[in-house]
């Protein structure tokens, strides 16, 4: 059985209570002198004798402390889950973004796949399982493998999720009735988040970079732009509609074929998220893109440097990196520094 972190903590509390009550029942009715001896082989207890008072108190204290600790962590986990969370998964040279609130989630792209597996199976699904998250919507930016490779694995795990795509391409595990086309001008609300599609103008048979589904997400006062691999020509068409951004998912893994001066100047993103593979053969992100983002004072986070990036939204925005300056000392030597 697969349990989330909170479920595991609550199960620990139940088992601790059961263990404590069982010991109390075993020893409480015994009136004979305690038999408790420390031997070379360890501690020896007998159910035919009573438990010494001092050991009984230590046992009660230990079980109570364990229960309080588990409930505190579970409460903290639940309070964190009550806010919006944006996750850029570390899927190498690909893209997979998740938007979560409590135990409900939406994915934007699913990472790549290979002959016997996918990033969805190794990175995304284990995270969702640990957090106890159910995926309700999947938005696919376009049909390239590094973005769409995990679609079938995701829908095998969440067969009733809604599928939104800019193309008519069929995927084995996705039913036709679940599909909704991503087209400019579409708007919808999921939970308390508002979604607006800025690109493409029409659906195609197979979506390439220039056909990427570009979605503006509003979480109250926060604005997020998800661009997939939208190129310069697409950016030129939708940039005028982009507001000032809190988070920009940098297009095409930081390639110079995206992230135009026009878009960056218009959006003025506070935080720029780049999903790329460390030591990728294309040398993404391109230095001109990094310089442009820095010029406009964006905080830049690259999964190739920092691993997965988590952005939490409450009264303020907080960024947490999987790999940070406290990572092992040899990280910077082999090119794995957080920045």
UniProtKB/TrEMBL annotation:
The chain crosses the membrane at residues 6-27, 59-76. Keywords: Membrane, Transmembrane, Transmembrane helix. GO terms for cellular component: membrane. GO terms for biological process: establishment of competence for transformation. This is DNA internalization competence protein ComEC/Rec2-like protein. The keyword Ligase does not apply. InterPro entries: ComA-like_MBL, Competence_ComEC/Rec2, Competence_DNA_uptake, Metallo-B-lactamas, RibonucZ/Hydroxyglut_hydro. Residues 94-278 form the Metallo-beta-lactamase domain. It comes from Haemophilus pittmaniae HK 85. Pfam families: Lactamase_B (PF00753).
